[in-house]
What we know:
Layout: H1 2-5, H2 26-31, H3 54-69, E1 75-79, E2 93-99, H4 109-113, E3 118-123, E4 129-135, E5 138-145, H5 149-163, H6 165-179, H7 186-192, H8 194-209
Parallel strand pairs: 2-5
Antiparallel strand pairs: 1-2, 3-4, 4-5
Helix pairs in contact: 5-6, 5-8
Amino acid sequence: xxxxxxxxxxxxxxxxxxxxxxxxxxxxxxxxxxxxxxxxxxxxxxxxxxxxxxxxxxxxxxxxxxxxxxxxxxxxxxxxxxxxxxxxxxxxxxxxxxxxxxxxxxxxxxxxxxxxxxxxxxxxxxxxxxxxxxxxxxxxxxxxxxxxxxxxxxxxxxxxxxxxxxxxxxxxxxxxxxxxxxxxxxxxxxxxxxxxxxxxxxxxxxxxxx
Length: 210
């Protein structure tokens, strides 16, 4: 099922030292899921043209999250392909949320569950990442502890693709070529994008320090 299989799609372990071991096997992918199971995708990837409604959908989700958490939402940003104007994407909003301690699920999971999200992924070995999903619209809500290096990486990638058309084209071409292949899991598609994603992030972070 594509929607379920896509939940780890931000985690494109490439050559970058900031990333951990790629999740490849069925057992590895199932182990991080709260439900403990995963259904194979065994299909190509369906990319949708950029939809100008995506920012509006994000704004509505942002309001829900802020209503649930208030000042506990220390960072809240629209990230991933749907946050980059002109870029085709799987029609699933990626949202970045930073809280004081993402390992303290009691501090945010019940409040977000009341807003319609559900806890789907728990990755204590990767920056204490948690992922909650929403269904209307489809949302992957990535939760980290404030200060996590993944925050600057995700924002750097987004802003680099927003501000440099050549980076956006490179990413678009990579996605389109890989999307035509059949993948057992959508995470394998994400892994295959890793080298390009890591190169874009590296250029973004380098420019940010100069």
